[in-house]
Design goal:
Length: about 325
């Protein structure tokens, strides 16, 4: 941890469809006196996308939206031109003015990312797009009439039992005292402790490894048809079907049939994390850190635990392929 300038690392291991154990090491920050524990919050970064996708798929099941319909059919407050792309987001320091979702979509100040545009025929080629999730966030708000954090709390987080998770920009009362502080690659604290991400669906989830493990287990159960906690078995199968590239409707996918793996990596400024699960065997792992070099540490931990959750090294290529800063 010291070598990678990562003050804290938190781990949850899933075995046979249950959280077998959790381990937490280090402190909330490099200069903090308070130790991190299983309740310590981390930014999930792009893992937010996989969790947020569930809300959209729930609306599909409720016949509120159609996955093959032009999104402009459902968008009320903003329309996309040429019927998309922004790879990632830098977030906003505590002292910086936050843009609205519309300003982010238009690339207007104070947004620090370009406009969300569509420069390819939808479905013609795969491309990683954080901007697509900002568009989805706006669509969900327009269709439901609810603010995105409220919708996610009601329809996904509470349903799964992710009680230490939120998409709110401002952490709930007392939660900031239990949040880990982000650090750059030199171990220096991020200004203001962490950046804020109004692009909530793409990068805005605060959570713990335990809560993300609950999310993975909920998907495992839905896939077996043993739970409709969040999605039906049929919709879960659709979510975990490879479309373009090695991606489903939200999570990244690797392998096939009984060896199918789903999950996501994440990289916000000052945070790196990993969330992966075998779809059918009930195994999985979540590792979260509060340092920009945390993915290197995560890979070391993974290698040491591979006999438990990855005996054939099947995740190595997948993790390396989809791990990038500020996804």
């Amino acid at each position: 941890m010291k070598h990678y300038h990562v003050p804290a690392v938190s781990i949850a291991l899933i075995h046979n469809g249950e959280i077998e154990w959790t381990k937490v090491y280090g402190y909330l920050g490099a200069d903090a006196v308070k130790k991190a524990d299983e309740f310590t919050l981390f930014q999930a970064a792009s893992i937010s996308k996989a969790v947020a996708a569930i809300a959209a798929l729930q609306l599909v099941e409720q016949n509120e939206i159609d996955l093959d319909e032009d999104v402009n059919t459902y968008l009320k407050t903003w329309k996309i031109k040429n019927s998309l792309t922004v790879h990632g987001f830098n977030g906003y320091a505590q002292t910086e003015e936050l843009p609205t979702l519309i300003q982010i979509l238009n690339g207007e100040k104070p947004a620090n990312s370009p406009a969300v545009i569509s420069d390819l025929v939808p479905g013609s080629v795969w491309r990683y797009s954080g901007g697509g999730y900002v568009l989805m966030q706006q669509l969900l708000e327009d269709v439901t009439g609810s603010e995105f954090p409220t919708l996610m709390q009601r329809s996904v987080l509470s349903s799964i039992g992710m009680n230490r998770s939120t998409f709110e920009l401002a952490l709930p009362f007392l939660w900031p005292e239990q949040a880990s502080i982000g650090h750059d690659s030199s171990g220096k604290k991020i200004s203001g402790n962490w950046h804020r991400y109004p692009e909530s669906a793409a990068a805005g989830l605060w959570t713990t490894p335990t809560d993300l493990a609950r999310y993975l287990i909920a998907i495992q159960k839905s896939l077996r048809g043993g739970s409709k906690q969040v999605l039906s078995k049929q919709m879960t199968e659709k979510m975990l079907t490879k479309h373009l590239g090695d991606w489903g409707l939200g999570p990244a996918l690797y392998g096939d049939n009984d060896s199918l793996v789903f999950g996501h990596t994440g990289g916000n400024e000052g945070y790196r994390c990993l969330s992966f699960s075998y779809a059918y065997s009930g195994e999985g792992v979540v590792i979260m850190t509060n340092g920009n070099d945390g993915m290197d540490l995560i890979m070391e931990i993974k290698e040491r635990r591979e006999k438990v959750f990855d005996p054939d090294h099947r995740l190595d290529e997948h993790i390396n392929k989809y791990s990038s800063p500020n996804e």
